[in-house]
Design goal:
There is one protein chain. The chain is of the alpha/beta class. 56% of the residues lie in helices and 13% in strands. It has 10 helices and 7 strands.
Length: 291
């Protein structure tokens, strides 16, 4: 539900701030824009029946306070402070001041050290915190190595939209070499040359991309503010640009999916060719033996 909310009613002390820190330059920039009449998307607030917990929009919240605004547009949802915290982990994945690698790492570690969230699968935590699944697995192992207690014997996993508990007592258990070979086969080729540093490089590359996007958004905002147009026209221009940017982002995602699918088909084709060559050699050998 969208409505004007008195900022004094909004709680920001419930641990719902997922970032490492507030970017004061962004707050100052937003505050100046607000003072000049700019409008921003509503903040997201979770109401538990007694308190309003800010989950998304901390920079906008502080900017409104800094600009002397008593009220702020808010998207008010029903939910507990923990639901607000969980929402905050991925709140800035697609808009606003993007999260940094440090922000995502903070969210991941908080989930891994939480009694409930730590039972989630690596992929679920990765999706919620915005890091890679392998990064979660690496940190989970590191945490368990530094604890005296044994890791939990169950983990919550999701399959087909249903959540259930998976027995993890046998995961990673030592097995006789012969049995391991029979049960699991050889190590997958994609894991033989795996280097954990690749995840850090990927996150660094993502951070560079996000900084470039933020820089482009800042230039757009400045250009719109400099337009010789009414506030309504400026708002319409900003919305149009945001819509087009989102469409471009979706097309890029679809293009990446097509490329991944193409690469998969090429790998399958190469494997089929290799198998055909093996069968052809075997056939020729059999023909010679029969002759």
């Amino acid at each position: 539900m969208h409505k004007k909310l008195n900022s004094g009613l909004i709680r920001i002390d419930g641990g719902t701030q997922a970032r490492e820190s507030i970017n004061q330059e962004a707050v100052q920039e937003y505050a100046e824009a607000i003072a000049q009449g700019a409008t921003f998307p509503p903040v997201t607030v979770f109401f538990d029946g007694a308190e309003h917990w800010l989950a998304d929009g901390f920079h906008r919240y502080h900017a409104h306070r800094h600009a002397g605004r008593v009220s702020i547009d808010a998207d008010v949802r029903e939910g507990t402070v923990r639901e607000a915290v969980l929402f905050s982990f991925s709140a800035n994945d697609g808009h606003g001041l993007r999260t940094t690698p440090a922000d995502r790492r903070k969210a991941m570690l908080r989930m891994l050290n939480d009694p409930e969230w730590s039972q989630w699968s690596d992929s679920a935590i990765a999706k919620a915190s915005g890091v890679s699944q392998q990064t979660v697995a690496n940190h989970r192992r590191s945490i368990f190595q530094n604890l005296e207690d044994s890791p939990p014997t169950t983990r919550k996993v999701e399959r087909g939209g249903k959540v259930y508990e998976q027995d993890t007592t046998k995961i990673g258990r030592q097995t006789a070499p012969g049995k391991l070979k029979r049960d699991l086969g050889p190590m997958p080729e994609e894991l033989r040359d795996y280097d954990p540093k690749e995840d850090d490089l990927k996150e660094a590359a993502l951070a560079v991309t996000q900084l470039a996007e933020e820089n482009e958004q800042l230039r757009t905002r400045l250009a719109i503010e400099a337009m010789d147009a009414s506030e309504e026209e400026k708002t319409e221009a900003a919305e149009t640009i945001a819509t087009l940017r989102e469409r471009v982002r979706q097309l890029e995602i679809e293009l990446d999916a097509v490329k991944a699918s193409r690469d998969g088909f090429m790998r399958e084709s190469n494997e089929l060719k290799r198998q055909c060559e093996i069968y052809q050699r075997a056939l020729k050998k059999a023909e010679k033996a029969g002759a």
